[in-house]
Specification:
Elements: H1 5-21, E1 26-31, H2 39-54, E2 58-63, H3 66-75, E3 82-83, E4 86-87, H4 91-114, E5 119-123, E6 130-137, E7 140-151, H5 154-161, E8 165-169, E9 171-173, E10 179-182, H6 184-194, E11 199-204, E12 222-224, H7 225-233, H8 241-253, E13 258-263, H9 269-274, E14 282-285
Parallel strand pairs: 1-2, 1-11, 2-8, 5-8, 7-10, 11-13, 12-14
Antiparallel strand pairs: 3-4, 6-7, 9-10, 13-14
């Protein structure tokens, strides 16, 4: 595709104020969904994160791996079980989950390294980062599924200070130092809050938040935290968006400046959202801020 040189220049100029504003700021990217399964999309996401790093941001990747865990559980002849949308994680499943998440983790490290940026892959057990307790679903025991109780971000700060890009898989530990699988959205929110991130971006399989999910023209580009809470309280949201939006609200309430919900299936969605005035997903921000993203 041939692009006029002046158009290229206009794109770079549009990005300039965002590069200036977020220079040396921490950005947490929660990476999951289809963008983790499609190799071409995976490479584009990693290119985006590497570019953020090279223009002065301090990115942190927190990734899931639910589809890959399910695939490996099936490979060994086990049947995955879910209660209220949460994976039941018995001891054998937990063993597989930890192995698979660490495998995914190192594959992402390799992709970043190939682009000339030094990445370090860790889990929430490293540096005793993610302390958790057993999570229940409607009072039901779902095994080794954890809820984040405390984050010790020291190892993250140490890596950022030494100019490494941290890539974190959501495995935590409890009082007895047993391993627990943590929902990657929850882990990303807890980590973003602990490091007081300037941005938290969720890569999902939806375009963002819609006023009417069946009307694709009703995408909401920006929401204040109050508007988002009203949306949650209205009961209009279904599926996985409800807990995701609640996570966004909690993160902003705990000090994260902005949260983005993006369609990870769109190539270079991170760059389009962060470096353009209108963006392509939904940005949620604290209403005390004077500046909105969209100036059109």
């Amino acid at each position: 595709m041939n692009i006029d040189p002046m158009e290229k220049a206009a794109v770079l100029i549009e990005a300039l104020p965002y590069i200036q504003r977020f220079n040396r700021k921490i950005v947490v990217v929660k990476y999951g969904g289809s963008a983790m399964v499609d190799e071409e999309l995976k490479r584009k996401v990693i290119q985006d994160v590497v570019l953020l790093k090279l223009v002065g941001f301090k990115p942190i990747i927190v990734h899931g791996g639910g589809k890959e865990i399910s695939r490996w559980v099936g490979k060994v002849g086990m049947e995955p079980h879910f209660v209220n949308g949460l994976r039941v994680t018995d001891e054998p499943t937990m063993e597989i989950a930890e192995m698979v998440l660490n495998k995914v983790n190192k594959s992402l490290v390799q992709l970043v390294n190939e682009l000339g940026v030094k990445a370090v892959g860790i889990s929430g057990k490293d540096g005793m980062m993610l302390k958790c307790r057993k999570k229940f679903s409607g009072g039901e025991d779902i095994g080794f599924v954890g809820e984040v109780e405390k984050v010790d971000p020291k190892v993250i700060y140490d890596l950022l200070e030494k100019d490494f890009l941290p890539i974190i898989c959501p495995i935590g530990f409890d009082d007895d130092y047993l391993s627990y699988n943590i929902n990657a959205d929850d882990a990303a929110c807890a980590i973003a809050t602990a490091v007081q991130a300037e941005k938290l971006a969720f890569l999902t399989d939806v375009e963002g938040v819609f006023r009417d999910f069946n009307d694709k023209s009703s995408l909401i580009s920006e929401m204040t935290i109050e508007e988002a809470q009203n949306f949650v309280d209205s009961g209009m949201l279904g599926g996985g968006m409800l807990p995701k939006l609640q996570n966004c609200i909690n993160a902003i309430g705990s000090g994260v400046s902005r949260v983005h919900i993006l369609d990870g299936r769109i190539p270079h969605c991170l760059l389009l959202e962060i470096f353009t005035d209108k963006g392509i997903g939904t940005a949620i921000f604290n209403s005390k801020e004077d500046v909105r993203y969209y100036h059109g």
